Amino acid sequence: MNAPHSRSLTIIGAGLAGALLATLLARKGWRVDVYEKRGDPRLKGYAGGRSINLALAERGRHALRQADADEAVMKQAVMMRGRMVHPRDGQPQLQRYGRDDSEVIWSVHRGDLNITLLDLAERAGASLHFHRQLDAVDFQDRIATFVDDRDGGRHPVEFASLVGADGAGSSLRAAMRLRADLGERTDFLDHSYKELEIPPAADGGFQIEPNALHIWPRGHYMCIALPNDEKTFTVTLFLPNHGDPGFDTVHTPAQARALFERDFPDAVPLIPRLEEDWHRNPVGQLATLYLDRWHIDERAVLLGDAAHAMVPFHGQGMNCAFEDCVALAEQLERHEDRAEAFAAFERERQPDARAIQEMALENYVEMRDKVDDEAFLLQRELERALQERHPGRFVPHYTMVTFMRIPYRVALERSILQRELLVAATRGLDRLDQVDWAKVDAEVLRRLAPLEAETR
Description:
Blueprint: E1 8-12, H1 16-26, E2 31-35, H2 41-44, E3 53-56, H3 58-66, H4 70-74, E4 78-80, E5 82-85, E6 93-96, E7 105-109, H5 110-124, E8 127-129, E9 133-138, E10 143-147, E11 154-158, E12 162-164, H6 171-179, E13 185-198, E14 213-217, E15 222-227, E16 233-240, H7 253-263, H8 274-280, E17 284-290, E18 295-296, E19 300-302, H9 305-308, H10 317-334, H11 338-370, H12 374-389, H13 397-403, H14 408-426, H15 437-447
Parallel strand pairs: 1-2, 1-12, 2-8, 5-14, 12-19
Antiparallel strand pairs: 3-7, 4-7, 5-6, 9-10, 10-11, 13-16, 13-17, 14-15, 15-16, 18-19
């Protein structure tokens, strides 16, 4: 059996985080085994979770660069310059995420990304084991038992340390919970989601503007669409669980069509298989997972969604998980004692995970309620003006979260101050030229220190 201090690690889950961590560690000479309950998607096709589109930002790209994966991934990515807002009445309007095309996010297909990362992990020397569902963990004797879903066969495996990269429904977390109190709690959002698809146009191209994340905001609910490299869009409808409209009142494909014709009429011609998609695709739940404890001494640690699942409204779940991978790999290199490495990783990342979980919940309200609100749009104008007037001191919230790698907790703290400043400076105003510039400049200088480009 491998001693706890040896450079050997067993990863549960061969999804995005598990494959990336395996690559990072194998490239540093670690012996890495990855166990995945599903079959190999490179042989049987991708059969992952419900959401097939992900937003890749600078944090995630930085992690991919550490694994020399960025170039391969970016070949499949579609640039998104900003939010294309589709109001009930009037023409769609693009709200840029950043100042120019150097500040964009990228739509990536989960399955394609997973396959790319698995190939890289294997080439780096990691051993991948598919059809292996974690069933039980003997932490005393360090034996993990896996079950093959094809024949029910049981496979005991000795381990030095386990890493749970197996998502929000983590089997390793369940096993750890039997051993120790993790302080686990799950807050379910009172909204859920359903996915549909916009197919390519008749000429094989995109039906609508490809370089944007499309949003149909409707107050307490919304629809979004993200582009795919095969010229489709993945459409996601977010509705309350109860109400009108809500998933308890919109059951049937016919009711779904009636909802779209009433509230998203410009989207209806884009989704020719609306009823079929509605019938076929399940309703997905939305929740935030909080844990007080991510590890058990040197024997097990959790990362990504297994430790801190979040709602998808800031597009940071994958990016945060990738940051976790880099941080854990660095702590394992820094500390010979595995327990110290896991504890240091938890101390470093837990405050940032809590911060982005909070910001993701806030961003849902912004996307569904505010993107077509006049007061919000004026605040956005002022935000951009102050960014030009005070570079390095007034940095927009979205820039800090998406285009920089400062800790999420720092971005949250500064965003709260900046939001207070924007609201106060625009209260009762209709136009930017009505702003009291002397007063607002003084407030920026008084309340916001220059932002250090904090990176790992």
